Amino acid sequence: MEYTEFKYSLKVWLTSVVVAPVIFMICNYSAINELPRWQYNSTPDLVNGYLELVVLGGFFSLLTYAFFYLFIKITVNSIDPMVSIKRIVCIKSIISVLGIGLTVATFQLFFSSVSEGPKNEFFYLMVGNCLCIGWFSWFYKIGAEESQTTK
């Protein structure tokens, strides 16, 4: 069976880039009862703020995506090739943990104050990205082999 690690990693990464800003906005609003740092006086302001977060998130996570793809490729190729649910669970567990670790490391590298926790406005963006990477690593099928196994 041929794996499609590239498509899988791209789906997980792009989905997190698009969904994490929404989680960020919701968490930030819930925590401090105001929308983050921008003044959202209208829907276009809200959309512009969202698009800024998507562009910045995509840019800052590009290197992380490259490592994420590499780790997926290595993980898939290093686990015993026997088709089984246990193998898929093992691969996805490793991918989830590595993806979340890479995300935290990236935020720590670019926004070192994120370790202050919820006091830092980028903390919720990091949490949103970690949730997305973790969830979508399990949500998307990693390749044809998983489709056959889960039928």
List its salient traits:
151 residues, mainly alpha, elongated
Q: What does the model show?
A:
The longest helix is centred in the first third of the chain and has 28 residues, at 5-32. The protein has 151 residues and is an all-alpha fold. The mean pLDDT is 79. It has helices at residues 5-32, 43-60, 62-78, 85-110, 123-139, 144-149. It is built from six helices and no strands. The two termini are 15 Å apart. Helices cover 74% and strands 0% of the residues. The protein has one domain (5-149).
Q: What's the story with the biggest beta sheet?
A: none
**DSSP strand content:** under 5%
Counting DSSP E segments of at least 2 residues, the number of strands comes to 0
Unreliable runs: none
- The percent of residues in helical segments reads over 70%
Terminal-residue CA separation = 15 Å
Helix-strand pattern: HHHHHH
Number of domains: 1
**Broad structural category:** mainly alpha
Question: How large is the count of helical segments?
Answer: 6
Oligomer: single chain
Rg is 17 Å
Overall 3D form: elongated
Mean pLDDT: 79
Walk me through the topology.
Layout: H1 5-32, H2 43-60, H3 62-78, H4 85-110, H5 123-139, H6 144-149
Concise structural overview:
By secondary structure, this protein is mainly α. It has six helices and no strands.
